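We give this protein:

***
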Amino acid sequence: MISRFSLIAVIWMMALAAAASWTGCGVKSPPVPPQAARPHQILDLRAASMKEGIRLTWGRPTTYEAGGRMNNLDHFAVLREDEQSGGAFRQIGEVQVTDQERFQQQHVFTFTDRDTTIGQSYVYEVVSYTQDHYRSQPSNHASIERTVPRPPPNPETFVLPTPTPLPLR
């Protein structure tokens, strides 16, 4: 014969199984198309020749390709094309995004390529990634030739331009 305790335990197990099957598990939202999860393409990549190398600057993508506000930006991959790469872009660095939870987020990111040679031309692009590993389209290309930057003016030898006299009437 079944004891009273066993009967209560069986009823509780059935109730628990019914509750678990009712709430379900896993994803509770409809599937998302890839363009709704991919970061918007970066369109403002700029390059400048500096003393320590070539500095790249770009703005933070704030929306997905489909237009929703992006909150899960993870990192940027920096790619370079040069004479040694044979026309193909190869990754030379990565910039991590660490301000997802902060109130004030970083709007501009920079990366300095220190492995450059003066007189050689380079082409760069940046790809952004989300925490879910969705990647954006490559950014605009930033082309630059590595040059020696101009030295700042020396205050001891700086000559002010001669003012032009105003014409008399």
User: Anything to note?
Assistant: The first helix runs from residue 4 to 23. The mean pLDDT is 84. The helical segments are 4-23, 34-37. The first strand starts at residue 46 and ends at 50.
